[in-house]
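idk why but the lab printer keeps eating my pages so im just putting this in chat instead. protein + adenosine-5'-triphosphate:
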Amino acid sequence: MAMTKDIGIDLGTASVLVYVKGKGIVLNEPSVVALDKNTGKLLEAGAQAQAMLGRTPGNIVAIRPLREGVISDYDMTERMLREFIRKVSGFSLFKPRVIICVPSGITEVEERAVIDAGIQAGARKVFLIEEPVAAAIGAGIDITQPDGHMVVDIGGGTADIAVISLSGVVESASIKIAGDQLNEAVVKYMRRKHNLLVGERTAEDMKKRIGCVFPKEEDESMDVKGRCLLTGLPRVVSVSSSEMMTAFEEPVDRIMETIHSVLERTPPELVADISTNGIVMTGGGSLVSGFDKLITSRTGIHTMIAEDAQSCVALGTGKSLDSLNHMQDGTMNLSRRRQMN
Ligand SMILES: Nc1ncnc2c1ncn2[C@@H]1O[C@H](COP(=O)(O)OP(=O)(O)OP(=O)(O)O)[C@@H](O)[C@H]1O
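predcted complex ->
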């Protein structure tokens, strides 16, 4: 008979990662669902649904139910979660306990929505953990000491910047500017500068291949296909890394301002700790070339990208499953993590 498995879920805007205790990360799928418009039936969730984005015939819609780090389509989020939980728990007789990771700036209404979605999707109990805390644990930082650490987690829809000490968030800020907004900035730039219409997927591809936020030693370039806004026909344009840097300027400056404002609000002892420990970056968005160099140069604090940056939140959420039993006894209080059902 199957045992109950505790599950950790990083419910991200871009992707959902599921961690099963004792097994590690068992699922990593894009946060996308595809529906039959006429019947409302869920056709696919994850990678298969992702492939349908922008390519669906009239009766099928592909939706990203989480936008900007919050649940924008509650019903779809629940169905997507249910599908993923079903995939990982198979025919277990027992409902799993689930820890879901949420952005630190989330409102109580949004919190409730995440918990309800988890319960509706088949969880026995749902616990929440703040994203920066999970990210820090996943990055291998010992957060239990009275020692300040700064984590900059740049995901798809949100950038979370937090100062953590003694397992809690001391100062933090969350902005709805991250990897997706960089893609949008590329789309805008291409339209304005080259009169070329490119899709979101192309923009993301450009970001990953030639994008940078700090000058590269050698400028790279890439041929980009799109539709000419003047003729309506397909056209190819060569785009360089330095152009990408220009395209990213505005959203990246907003992220930098937010990092500065968190540092300004942080008590001096902790700032001193951070300048010794360095700043740690996590999340897929931190993989844009030169982000660590940019932060180092603008703050004067050494910045590094965590190993396996995109999985840190899921790994940390997974590791925190180990403390679930303590939590129920009320002996453990990791950050603001709450049990609400
Ligand atoms: N190699 C790469 N270079 C640049 N960006 C990347 C790379 N790999 C992934 N990304 C970007 O990382 C973002 C997704 O990051 P991640 O999976 O950490 O987000 P998430 O947890 O789903 O979102 P959120 O934390 O906002 O809810 C996407 O915008 C994606 O384009």
